[in-house]
Amino acid sequence: MKKTINVSNQGATLDTGRRNFLKLGGIGLAMAGLTLIGCDDDNDFGMTDNGPVFDLGTGDVGVLNYAYALEQLEADFYTKVVNNFYSGISSVERDLFTDLYHHEVIHRDFFKAAITGATTNILPTLEFKYPNVNFNDRNSVLATAKALEDTGVAAYNGAGKYITNAAYLVIAGKIVSVEARHASAIRNIINPGSTDFSGDDVIDANGLDLAKEPKDIVMVAGGFIKTPFTWKERGIS
């Protein structure tokens, strides 16, 4: 069955008075109407001692749920940052984190609406933990933001080849371009005026962003995720 949904940015609380490339990047995603076609419901639950464990699913549904999990994590992190800015934060850093917060919430809500419109197999709201993050410390917050943004870019790049629907691939390409801007901005805050935005740790010998397999991404991001899930199709269990 074909299911069509329309997602708009109406009601989003973006401060359009600040004209910076990050803000424009978020709006550029536009939350344009997206037709989700041919996604089959694919409920697959495993069991643990604490009850059922959600499986992300197969095909495009699995990839969308995977992206949704990562966007939930980033949105949750930046929500915590902006709700209690670290002491001594500059106006530039405050604006940057506020922009990133808005972007990630838009990304998260977009995936939730898109997947809900296509299938009943939608990842539930996850719970997160930050055992090694001190939200009152600038260096700790920036280091975590850097790790999350770099991981997000590599995750989208690595999962792109598993997307079969061209419309999904276009959306993923738009979102990863915004995530790359996030990563660049964070790196510039940490080391202003440097070339860290395209450092050897994130750019390969061919001048391309790194791409990592879902299994490798979950090994890194899993340290923040309290809610268990599997993605059996990609060897994550």
Automatic annotation (TrEMBL):
<keyword id="KW-1133">Transmembrane helix</keyword>
<keyword id="KW-0812">Transmembrane</keyword>
<feature type="transmembrane region" description="Helical">
    <location>
        <begin position="21"/>
        <end position="38"/>
    </location>
</feature>
<dbReference type="InterPro" id="IPR009078">
    <property type="entry name" value="Ferritin-like_SF"/>
</dbReference>
<protein>
    <submittedName>
        <fullName>Ferritin-like domain-containing protein</fullName>
    </submittedName>
</protein>
<keyword id="KW-0472">Membrane</keyword>
<dbReference type="Pfam" id="PF13668">
    <property type="entry name" value="Ferritin_2"/>
</dbReference>
